[in-house]
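Example record used in the benchmark description.
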Amino acid sequence: MEVLYGMFLLLGGIGLFLYGINFMTASLKAFAGDKLRNALERMTKKPLLAFLTGILVTALIQSSGATSVMLVGFVNAGLMEMSRALYVMLGANIGTTITAQIIAFKVERIAPLFLFLGVVFSTFIRGRTAKKAGNIILGFGMLFVGIYLVGMASTALNLSTVIGNFLANFSNPLLSLLFGFAITAIIQSSSASIGILQVLLVSSAAGTFNLSSVFYMILGMNIGAASPVVIASLGASRGSKRTALSSVAAKVIGTALFLLITLLFPLFTNTTVVAFIERLSPGDITRQIANLHLFFNLVSSLLLLPLVKPISAFSYKCFPELPELEMESQKLLYLSPEVLLNPSIAVAQAKREILRMARLAEENLKLSLHAFFESNEDETERVYEREKTINYLNHEITGILIALHGKNLSPHDLERLGMMFHVTSDVERLGDHAENVADYTVQIGGAKLSTLMSAPAIEELHTIADKTLLVVKMAIEAYDREQFDLLPSISEAEEEVDQLQETLIAHHIERLKNDQCDPQGGVIFTDLVTDLERCSDHAINIAYSINGEKSTVAVKKYIMTRGEEND
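Model output (structure tokens):
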């Protein structure tokens, strides 16, 4: 019965310890909020600053994995270069060692006080800031109560003999390193795995174990810390995979360089390093593990700083930029379920996915017009296939936007999100009109336009088509780069399309009266001109979304024509 009780204490203690670390990390992230994202966006322009930012941000949220996953989002959204992200990751490796240092303070005897204070702040004190601070204290308390329970279990189960026998099985450095890697890959946190190691060793029997017995295991745990980034990249874009590969490469190369130095330089052998760490805090295995964790990450990160660009270049060679066919594939390239864990980043990536959809719609409009003027039915098949992708993206992006709307976003991001619904709808309508143009080509049945329309009619269609394509191109560019200076030019070009619609239809009616054009061609002419004019309306809506509104010109037409288009 005593053994069973001890097992319950051990499992419960480890569970509470892991939950406490995760809860504290999540609470720290919530407390930092948008300031954390802004720090990563703005303070990473220079390599040294990016490195220091990685240390600071990770020290605040207590998780290099969380920092790395955020960086995956930034790189994927095009907000950060791969090399800059790698500098931040190297800093994050150092920042994450703070957790082990905190655990080494051994404040578990007063941990219940932290639990009490955390509950008081998060439950009984009003104000979001107080509640967030209370959650941080609560997580801190759970972490150390978990340590206390593991200590009780160690005494009840006499774990020193069990752990001693266990470590003896991993006396081989390679096996020890692989075991450390596997444990951290499963737990998804080097802070948690090293924390468990600290707790188990200190609770078993003081002086029974020394640092050299877990030296290689700690190195393996640091390599395993890259696993959250790898998992976040699965099924995601090539940008995410590049970030994951760079993170893993940096971990492996950093460990290899560290081990190489311990083999080649007598002053830095693993025995010398262990002796140096042990002298800093004799008899305190918990502090020694924390100090070795810090020393390894500090040395390996500094060694890797000159190698950032080569590692980044290697990741680009392994995962080059997306080919055109993948851009047109029916899958999300910049959004994934993991992205929703960081809503503010997801907003930026949603815009990138919308831009991809917009460029597909623009290309489809170009292709459909080319097929029409050349009477090429074969090209219409590609238009129809691409339209399926546009419809798929519209459905998936809208679903993500709805999910994001329920997340905790800043007022600015909420405003951007609201306009994204409109932009996505307008882009989808552009695709529909391109499909209409392809339908006209099919109606003609391969006949030359000159048999249905006069040369002036065809010339006029070319004029309004070119002007419409210009409006669409400028609108997407304005939305992409938020170029407010383009808006007057877009409005002017859109007005020209409006005037062309009225003028060209009037001209064509006169031609029909004079039997200069075929009646079937007359219907197609009028429908095509109307489609192109509506394309320019949707385009100007996209452009003016950067102002948080539709243009005054397009609003009137949007109200009048929206009902007609829902057929």
